[in-house]
Amino acid sequence: MSTDKTIKGLVKSDVDYDGSSLRVAIVHARWNKVIIDALVAGAVEKLKERGVKESNIVIESVPGSFELPLACSRMIAGSHIQTGSNVTDLLGGLNFGGSPSRTGTPAPAGVANMPSQPFDAVIAIGVLIKGATMHFEYICDSVSQALMRIQLDTGVPVVFGVLTALTDDQALERAGLGRGANGKGHNHGEDWGLAAVEMGSHVRRWN
Ligand code: DLZ
User: Fold this and answer.
1) Using an 8 Å Cβ cutoff, are 67 and 164 in contact?
2) Which residue of 121, 151, 153, 207 lies most exposed, with the fewest beta carbons within 10 A?
3) What superkingdom does the record give (predicted)?
């Protein structure tokens, strides 16, 4: 047996979950946006690879990670209402070859309040990087606890896509943007996209 095999990390599922009937929201913070963009792109890529339709991927942004729980909670609660139409100009700078719909965009006349399918999963994406004060600790703790509470209270999977990094380099590596001796690293957004499809599929089966 090879000794260099790591025991850490996610083992790929034996099942290729089919996301073709799922509706998924991505809620992301805008702090540390270069890293956020890569993570969102990774998540979208895997959602689409698993068959989630572009029109069923809804992306919303909030200022910082602290705002993620409220946004997830309200999006789940209001997910039967389509507040915006499909919008192709994603976040101005994001470029990952897709055109998921956005909420929060003023809906054209006649589009607002159209019923739509509830979200099967929500991915909350934020990047917290430790600074000189206790700010990081408070936000990491409250956000992770709140996101867990939301998924348990609502029964809708909330994927924990919040990087809690001690340094810029740690965060970059976890978004596949590493610049150090460890190489580019791995984009965890991809894992979060797969987790959303898997958990959304499980919950449909369990209900
Ligand atoms: C204020 C702040 C700081 C210092 N650092 C981060 C960070 O690294 N990542 C992040 O997502 N947000 C940060 N914020 C903003 C807070 O999350 C929040 O947006 C503000 O405190 C307003 O509620």
Assistant:
1) no
2) 207
3) Eukaryota
What is the model's pTM?
0.86
Q: Is 35 in the pocket of ligand 1 (CB under 6 A)?
A: no
Euclidean distance between CA atoms 174 and 189, whole angstroms? 8
65 lines ligand 1 (CB under 6 A): yes
Single-letter amino acid code for the residue at 178: G
User: Is the CB of residue 36 less than 8 Å from the CB of residue 126?
Assistant: yes
Task: Find, among 119, 139, 141, the residue nearest to 27 by Cα.
Answer: 119
Nearest CA to ligand 1 atom 7: 128
Instruction: Locate 10 and state its tokens.
Output: 């996610």
* Per-residue pLDDT tens over the stretch 175-190: 999 998 889 999 999 9
pLDDT (0 to 100) of residue 102: 56
